[in-house]
Amino acid sequence: MTTTQTLHKTLKDTFGFEKFRTNQEAIITTILEQQDALAIMPTGGGKSICFQLPALLFPGITIVISPLIALMKDQVDSLKTNGVQACYINSSQTATEQQTYIEAIQNHEIKIVYIAPESLSYLENLFHTLTLSLIAIDEAHCISSWGHDFRPAYTNLGYLKNRFPSTPILALTATADKATRQDISAQLNLKNPKIFISSFDRKNLSLEVRPALDRIKQIIDFVGQKPQESGIIYCLSRKTTEELAQKLLQQGIAAKAYHAGLDTKLRSQTQDAFINDECQVVCATIAFGMGIDKSNVRWVIHYNLPKNIEGYYQEIGRAGRDGLPSETILFASYGDVIQLQKFASQGLNADVQLAKLERMKQYADALSCRRKILLAYFGELVTENCGNCDICKNPPAFFDGTIIAQKALSAISRLKQLEPLVVVIDFLKGSKNASIYEKNYQNLKTYAVGSTISWQDWNQYLIQLMNQGFCEVAFDQKNKIKLTTLAHEVLFSGQKVQLIEPKKVVIEKTTSKEP
Ligand code: ADP
Ligand code: ZN
């Protein structure tokens, strides 16, 4: 049998599937060739098969590192149902239980073992005496403080490559922008990893941004119109989740709060009630959702602005996993921006996190197709507008902004893509700042080519160009502005660019006293 035939047979015989989904076969083949890989695949895209199937074909054992202790049992049970010898080891077990599994591993009775990163250290010697065929690292973005869900327990995983240099590593995640992808690969010491990025487009999700005025009333109206449809409301603080759930309950809406401060039993009750359609609405912090397998979530609302686009996209992605039309609404408020700026500037990697927050704010303020912005953010450049976002449904008036775009993009190019947004604008404006004179930028061609347009307008035009995917912020390089391949078409192939007149933005100061 050829490799392809073996793979298809195993897929059918063990997992009962007829064909592979996008990238699954290519990832599996890479792993079987013992090469490292990084797979970015949306939630529900089918990441598990990518390590479970090769695990069956390899002679030795596969370890799967996952932070989601609560899900390990389900995953292992479902593998066992398919006839795969699997077990898990984490802190929820007694020492005796752990010992039983360790013995099973020593006796070569196990093909796949799920392990929480915290539990990995004392198993290390054991693995050294066995053939370790594959290391899969699920939710790999947790290793990066540039991502949106950094977990300290993940930071030590970089040693795995040094300890087991000949074992291939497969890192998997549902969200990672370019900077986070590079960081994951560096932190895990991956060797020339092949990177697989599945399409992030979720056409069935409508996208909408609303000013955050009277959010609660808007939510009650919205939910009131769809009494049969369940959804998630993401809030920034634990307190807000509880207050909001209370207000919805008062309106007769079956709502519950969920956050990491509630006790484990209550949390799993809420989760079960939601999955079994007994609770219509969960008001939650971002602690809710990772790994929740409910396909008919019909809507996701962001009560507060998320802290970056990676998190936002992952959270709205929990709606409509069954492929049916689902709605997402983001409430944008100036107060949230201020609050999030404060958090970001006090946390790890403040510069990167602030720049990511700025990109999130620009998304909320944007006046061009929102899906294009999201896809461009993850490196997928599309030229068509989506038709399923608030901007596409109610488009602002566009004008031919090709000349403006050419000026801006050639300025970025003249500055050798080495400068952040403010310097690009200073250069276009012909400013006499130190940032210009120190590097003699005033002598470059096209300096001051945009002096008749105001600084604020340039700022908005550049953001529009970024939102349309012509340029991007390199978070990992001091926020320098870089050109994308689409920019080359504008500069060299006569591609036209549509812009809109700069005008006031969505994020306004809110006055109402809401939680
Ligand atoms: P992820 O980890 O990416 O969120 P999973 O691995 O849990 O996704 O897969 C999501 C669902 O898709 C599961 O129910 C799984 O059984 C199913 N699935 C995965 N691969 C295939 C396939 N090739 N054909 C049909 N269903 C698949
Ligand atoms: Zn659109």
Automatic annotation (TrEMBL):
Protein's GO biological process? DNA recombination; DNA repair; DNA replication; SOS response
Cofactor entry: Zn(2+); Mg(2+)
The residues covered by the Helicase ATP-binding domain are 28-194
Question: Which catalytic reaction applies to this protein?
Answer: Couples ATP hydrolysis with the unwinding of duplex DNA by translocating in the 3'-5' direction
Enzyme Commission number = 5.6.2.4
Q: What is a single cellular component term in the Gene Ontology annotation?
A: bacterial nucleoid
Q: Which family does it belong to?
A: Belongs to the helicase family. RecQ subfamily.
**Protein's recorded name:** DNA helicase RecQ
Q: Which organism is it from?
A: Flavobacterium crassostreae
- Give the source lineage, highest ranks first: Bacteria, Pseudomonadati, Bacteroidota, Flavobacteriia, Flavobacteriales
Which part of the entire protein is covered? 1 to 515 of 702
